[in-house]
Amino acid sequence: MSDQKRLFLVDAYALIFRGYYAFIKNPRINSKGEDTSAIMGFMNSLLDVIKRERPDHLAVCFDNGGSVDRVEMYEAYKANRDETPEGIKTAIPRIHEILEAMHIPIIEKHGFEADDVIGTLSRQAEKEGYKTYMVTPDKDFAQLVTENIFMYRPVFGGGYETWGIPEIQKKFEVETPDQVIDFLGMMGDASDNIPGLPGVGEKTAKKFIKEFGSMENLLANTDQLKGKMKEKVEANAELGRLSKELAKIMLDVPVTFDAKDFELDHPDIEKVKEIFQELEFRRLTDNFLKAFPSETETPAATQSNDSKPPEAKPTPKEEKSAGAGQFSLFGGDATTATETTSEYVRRTIETTSHFYQSVAPGMATTLFVKNLMNQTAVCFDTETTGLNPLTAELVGIAFSWEAGKGFYVPFPQDKNEAQELIEIFRPFFENEAIEKIGQNLKYDIKVLAKYNIDVKGKLFDTMLAHYLINPDMRHNMDVLAETYLNYTPISIVELIGKKGKNQMSMRDVPLDKQTEYAVEDADITLQLKEHFEKELTEANTQKLFDEIEVPLLRVLAAMELEGINLDKAFLNSLSEQLNTDIAVLEKKIYEAAGEEFNIASPKQMGIILFEKLKLVDKPKKTKTGQYATSEDILSYLAKDHEIIRDILEYRGLAKLKSTYVDALPLQVEETTGRVHTDYMQTVAATGRLSSNNPNLQNIPIRTERGRQVRKAFIPRNEEYTLLAADYSQIELRIIAALSQEETMIEAFKNGEDIHASTASKVFNVPLAEVTREQRSNAKTVNFGIIYGVSAFGLSNQTDLSRGEAKELIDTYYDTYPKLRAYMSEQVDFARDHGYVQTVLGRRRYLAAINSRNAVVRGAAERNAVNAPIQGSAADIIKIAMINIYEKLQAGNYKSKMLLQVHDELVFDIYKPELDTMKTLIKTEMESAYKLDVPLDVDLDIGENWLEAH
């Protein structure tokens, strides 16, 4: 065992920002309205380091005034950084106060960054025989690693990684850590606005490091490069040298490592407790006291000061329903776990008493099913060979009906034998009296449907329950387990490895490990259900859960399994047409520019438009000094310049071709010959569904070519036709009803064209004399008001000047005074309650509604108005979908519901059922919810989606 002392240097801002953004979707706001997310996140990390490592010496290093030297070298250095969030600004003084009370040194030097302070101190400490651990996630620190200097990197979800020389060599593919400076200089760093060498990304930078070893050697041997890369590197040699200098961490900051000043001292416990009490950190106080027991007590955890670096802890598993996303930085208290669960270190399967057992074939299975059938509520979880439910095969099913206990039934690989086994469980799955519990049950239902098993009875989906309780937070099981149960489940990576060719199938995992992993999932989900049942009641969302989200789960599963037919030959033909259109536009743009250039390059385009053609006197620039050529900038200029109109059209066609026309045929499922989108219920906080793989909700419909993509979606066969049913102006009808604006309500009741009616009133002309332009402007305002359109925004969307746009908006509000009053009331309600809600009680929480930052507060205020309208529209179409699905099932119709796209439903209609379906669909959609304004649905049929729309 070595007596070598250890120094831990904490990169303050890196962990403060990390802590703040870990809570960004679920901010920690105390009763005084203070956002304490950044403080809590940082303190979790710091206390965890202290508890885990018991360092001899420790300091926290802050930036102070930025890097004067780097800004002198390159004025644009870090110029693209967004303004520091208010929640972090207000946290810094508090963190300083806590550190002072803890007697932890704060090291900062004006004009220098924390990187440079840490770099200087680590080198000084190394000379005095210390091992230094740089506590930071920032990859730039890799250049400082030596035999005695390590990176100590937090890992999302708990634990840390220690990077020494071998880890740096592997990660960056370098021979020595100091080559990381060359690597960073070559590829640049967007976060710090270090330009790098144009065209050189991570892969190329690693290749150059292997071939040339350094930036200087690369620049001295450009004759070995080829083509455009050679031209780019030679033309930007000085930029490369500058980038390397900017990436280099300074080692000569005027700070001094004095071992006595850095010793980890005993804190002023009462002072820290007082601060934590003010901040309302109850559980963090417990954790602090565990990290610093009284001087007469033995520390709860100690670690010897041997020379071996700390071992990295495993990261949490990925949930089948969503990517892992965690709140804790090092595994400490990060969330709203129940007060009874106050242990600082999260529980795991190794530290928690449990009984998980696999069920043997034969008599054991028969007896198990008999026991299963005696339960009133059971949580189950399928384990499969993959994430695609249309192709995945069952590997096993886990069951749990008592916390800490559960069983696992492994399935044979032979399909006939697997079917025979699932038949034994059919009575359970199809028993109406037994409640079925799960996490992302839609996946399990779709998997079981392939085995002709229909999951019946009451359902409880923990993912959906949590979505209603806290829509802005992530909902995958790992996050929920850590948040509410203070428990970290087994990582799927531990079982099957990371994604890639070496990843195993679940079938390759030993049975004992399958059992532990699968039953743990079912057990944890069961425990979450018990927790969420109470919270659904407290949030008044139980009815929404029982009557909309859970029934919709079955509807979506059926739609996704059905899929929709795709005309691949038509898309191939459309792709060829787009190639021709793009080539014509490309030639036209080159002719207007007087030369060829890369139209996809914003930099090259900016030079052509604003330097060569001088289309604008004072063109806007990005923070990097490059000309701004984003779509909103170009759209504003398009009406005056044909070349810009052509460029915008070129971009649109290129995106359409790559995103849909060429991509959709590749997404046809081989086993069905159809496209099967996946509808996510838990993504949009407003309640809207989200379509993925492929996303069928974003197919462009404003351009002719965009609309053509819909032509590729066709009926099942000649016996079927497509029917599209679309709610007419539903959001305007909802806002009219919610605001009780009589003028709008009457217009809808009288069947008037609402946009012409609005134009008639705001422009003060008879309805019959409204011009097309007036109606168009009124339409823009009608829809824009919902999204908080400004005079500037309206002028950009119309031919109106900003003054005319402001006058139109003011006149609009004068015409519809109750509308304005309603919007104001919604904002006031949000300020008082912290949320707004839909007609069915779906809540949208708005933590930033009282922010002192005007931009942040303004966005929350717009959401306060928009969320109830969008969310109510989402709720209404969900009700319609449930009712229509139930009618289709009850009538045993051949017609099927296929797609939901915003306010539209698409059906595959069996032609003999067409008249019946028209009546049924229109009736159910228009009667889904009763407002003071009638709902109106437009129906169309066609041999493809375009014709039917």
Structural summary, described in words:
This protein is an alpha/beta fold. The protein folds into four domains: 6-262, 5'-nuclease (Rossmann fold, 3-Layer(aba) Sandwich); 355-541, Ribonuclease H-like superfamily/Ribonuclease H (Nucleotidyltransferase, domain 5), CATH 3.30.420; 565-675 and 683-714, Taq DNA Polymerase, Chain T, domain 4 (Up-down Bundle), CATH 1.20.1060; 738-872, DNA polymerase, domain 1 (Orthogonal Bundle), CATH 1.10.150.20. It is built from 37 helices and 24 strands. The strands form six sheets. A six-stranded mixed beta sheet has the order 3-2-1-4-5-6. Helix 28 (730-739) packs across helix 35 (854-890). The longest helix has 37 residues, at 854-890. The chain is globular. It starts with 5 loop residues before the first strand and ends with a helix. Residues 295-344 have low confidence and may be disordered.
Lateral strand order in the biggest sheet: 3-2-1-4-5-6
In CATH, the architecture of the largest domain is 3-Layer(aba) Sandwich
According to CATH, the fold-level topology of the largest domain is Rossmann fold
Q: Roughly how many Å apart are the termini?
A: 75 Å
Biggest sheet architecture: 6 strands, mixed
